Amino acid sequence: MSDQWFAGVDLGGTTTKIAFISMNGVIVHKWEIPTDNSNEGQNITSNIAKSINEKLNELGANREQLIGIGMGAPGPVDYETGIILNVVNLGWKDNYPLKESLEAATSLPVVIENDANCAALGEMWQGAGNGAKDLVCVTLGTGVGGGVIANGNIVQGVNGAAGEIGHITAIPFGGAPCNCGKTGCLETIASATGIVRLANEALLKDGSNGELAEKHASNGNITAKDVFDSARNGDLLAKKVLDDVSFHLGYVLANIANTLNPEKIVLGGGVSKAGDILLKSVRENFEKYAFSSVKDSTKLAVATLGNDAGVLGAAYLIKNNLNL
User: Distance of alpha carbon 234 from its chain centroid, rounded?
Assistant: First the structure.
């Protein structure tokens, strides 16, 4: 059993990451292939199966070494059936039978889960979660994603939409429009897109002096990284934006923790690369609004696995499903 592998698959709209992963969570080999969205995505699962077979041959491995496939897919998933309910960028029609299709192509057991949930499982198993069985993972990227793990299992909700942390209302009145159709969502503030919006609004309102203003004048635009870098260098306007973001993020995370009392809250995604300047400020707000025993028992940390979180979480998914 010790020399057997799982395949972890992180399905994206442009590329699909695949890895062979050992029973104890070590990545044996990883690679990626283009995601073929043509013809309503009908080649996606067959391409994955073909690539897995080619890689096994290339590595001189026996097919019997591979005991199952876990996959993270971008969209809400019916965990029991492996049907992906709706996806905007893969070509599939709604209610696509992804598990059935991949099992037919590979003749292996398959488990499907939302990709953000897989990233959370990966961080729990081999990353910043460090084995914590009660964990909240928040991905701060172009949007804000989330995964909630209770007693080692993903909390999915009645139709797979649990953990939509980015769509918790942070500003109930007068908030910015969100792509989900609501206004004032956390995603409109704590995502990279939201941070840039807040910074542009601050620059328009509060003047043109300082490092952030100079970057905007020089480049014609700014990024979330520019905001954090400028705040780190003492720019007052950038610091004001950071304080705004940190307040809303810390406040929301405190209320999530007051409800769930997780052992850890892990911040991932591109925005989390800001590191301590963000984490320290978020933690201060978190501690201000967290219930005392929650504040003492829930730790905030930055994710450590990067792009490997999804494939590792997918492997954990199939490992857990097979009770191995």
Answer: 30
What tens digit of pLDDT does each residue of 168-178 get? 999 999 999 99
| CA 8 to each of CA 41, 120, 154, 309: distance values in angstroms, whole numbers, following the listed order | 20, 14, 17, 10
Q: What is this structure's pTM?
A: 0.83
Burial grade of 113 (CB within 10 A; 0-12, 13-18, 19 or more): buried
How far is residue 128's CA from residue 121's CA, in Å, rounded to a whole number? 11
Q: In what order do the strands lie in the sheet with 83-84?
A: 77-78, 83-84, 96-97
What is the pLDDT, as a whole number, of residue 247?
Answer: 98
- The whole-number mean pLDDT for each consecutive block of 10 residues of the chain, a chain of 324 residues, reads 86 91 96 91 94 95 94 86 81 90 96 91 92 91 90 86 91 93 95 95 84 91 95 95 97 97 93 93 97 96 92 95 87
Q: Which residues of 64-74 are buried (b: 16+ CB within 10 A; e: fewer)?
A: eebbbbbbbbb
What one-character-per-residue DSSP string does 35-97 give?
---HHHHTTHHHHHHHHHHHHHHHHT--GGGEEEEEEEESS-EETTTTEE---SSS-PPSSEE
- The token duo for 46 is 């067959």
Q: Report pLDDT for 2.
A: 57
Q: Using CB atoms within 10 A of its CB, is residue 62 exposed (0-12), middle (13-18) or buried (19+)?
A: exposed
CA distance 319 to 313: 10
